[in-house]
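Whether sequence alone determines local backbone shape is best considered at the level of individual chains. When preparing material for the folding task, we compiled for one chain both its residues and its backbone structure tokens. No coordinates are needed to read the tokens, only the vocabulary itself. For completeness, the protein is quoted in full, as a sequence line and a line of structure tokens:
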Amino acid sequence: MDRKSGWMPHRAGARGFTLVELMIAVLLLVIVLAVAAPPLRQLVHGNRLRTEASRLLRALNLARSEAVLRNQPVSVCPSSMAQDGSARCGGEFARGWLVFSNADRDRIVDAPGDSVIRAFAAIPAGYSLTNRAGTRAATDLITYLPDGSSRRSRTLLLCAPAGLGVASWSIVLNNVGRPRVARGEGACPS
């Protein structure tokens, strides 16, 4: 330390940040996070939405292939079996779904002709699964016949929680029975 001026000379080995430099770095970090957070949030919800659409698509493809393989009708119905263990159809697809062999084409998994193939868990809370118009919950049974057809066209609309600005995903099923996913086909309910 220089006794006359009270100034301490800079040491070659000294390292670190001054308080002003640290405050500027923190301020820059806060600005970057404020700018990046909304797009990152949309990205996370968009990926989750795509994952859920893929899960439902996987269930429909499973039902179709099992109908051909077993040479009997196979259905996909709304069910909470993945949560409560009860092999029953009912409620909305948003609460989960069940793939089962369905010899008599009803909404009941009844022995000896019917058997559960796979149960799927519910979609995340806040997300919705409706008809394409977004006016009512998806509750209808989807049945594949032994030739792999469903003989009914339908579109299910999967939406993220409102206000996120994330495009919807649709699960489209044609008369032949081929399911596919499409992004942005249909407007989510507000």
User: Anything to note?
Assistant: The two ends are 69 Å apart (CA to CA). The CA atoms of residues 102 and 110 lie 8 Å apart. The mean pLDDT is 86.
